[in-house]
Structures are given as C-alpha cells and as structure tokens.
Amino acid sequence: MTYLLILLALLVCREARLRAMLRHHQPLGQRSTGPVHTALLRHASLQSSPGSPFPEPREERVLLWRLLGLTLHSRRCSVALPAQWDARIDNLGAEESDALFRGAYRLKEWAAPAPARTTTNPRPHPASWYWGSFHFFG
C-alpha cells in the first residue's frame, strides 16, 4: 500500500511539473479514444540557441497522451522559424509554420476525421482488439 501511495504521489508531482512547463502552450487539437486523450499544443517564442548571443524565433509543438487526466507520455518537436518572423512572433498563426513540421505535429493530421470502422459485423469478437494488432500477411 505504501508503494502505491508513493507511486501516486510521484505521478501527481510529475503531472504538476509538466502542466507548469506547458502553461504558455496553446491547444491546437484533441482526440479521444475511450479513456485515452491525445492533445497537440504549440508555443512560439524567441529563444537563444547555445553559443549564440541573439535569440531566434522558434516554435515548439508537444504531443500529449493522457489517461484519465494523467499524462502517460509526451513528445516535443521544435523548429527554427525564418528570421523575418521575429517581429510578429506574438501574432504568428499555427498555419503559417505548419509546413516546417512533420507527421503527427502537422495541423492537417489533426483536421482529418478519425478513420471509420470497416467491419460488417455490428458486434466484433471480444478478443478482436488483441488479434487485430497482429499482421500475418503483409
């Protein structure tokens, strides 16, 4: 029981630290699959790079996977923005820098609806979640 309380306290501390780090990030999109929620956040700012005394415009996007409100995993992607954008970094839209990001960090990935189920059986087999994860032929 003590180990469970320690684990719970560590999870709460980790979640509080992560929320404090991401408090300036703007939400771009959210998806839910049962109790698991996925969110995409962004933050554009002027940041100094190591070895350079001058700040440069950068945008950071974060993918969060949460289960019942607690963050299970997070991934970050940060890109350098063109130097001309530093004057309007506060008014920069997410669409303008979207082409600089890859894969799941792009807005078009979040605009597409979730793929529909293509099963003809209205009641899937109870173990289909397990067997559906294996691909035997290709």
Describe the protein's architecture and organization.
- There is one protein chain.
- It is built from three helices and four strands.
- It has a four-stranded antiparallel beta sheet with strand order 1-2-3-4.
- Residues 129-138 have low confidence and may be disordered.
- The longest helix is centred in the N-terminal third of the chain and has 20 residues, at 2-21.
- The protein has helices at residues 2-21, 107-111, 128-131, and strands at 26-33, 36-48, 55-67, 70-80.
- It has a domain at 25-113.
- How many β-strand runs? 4
Cα shape: flat
Q: Low-confidence parts, pLDDT < 50 over ≥5 residues?
A: 129-138
Count of alpha and pi helical runs: 3
Structural class estimated from helices and strands: alpha+beta
Q: Could you spell the SSE succession in H and E letters?
A: HEEEEHH
First CA to last CA: what distance? 46 Å
Profile the largest sheet. 4 strands, antiparallel
Beta-strand residue percentage: 25-35%
Going across the major beta sheet, what is the strand order? Answer: 1-2-3-4
Mean pLDDT across residues:
81
Rounded radius of gyration (Å): 20 Å
The amount of helix comes to: 10-25%
What's a concise summary of this model?
This protein is an alpha+beta fold and 138 residues long. The chain contains 3 helices and 4 strands. The model is unreliable at 129-138 (pLDDT under 50).
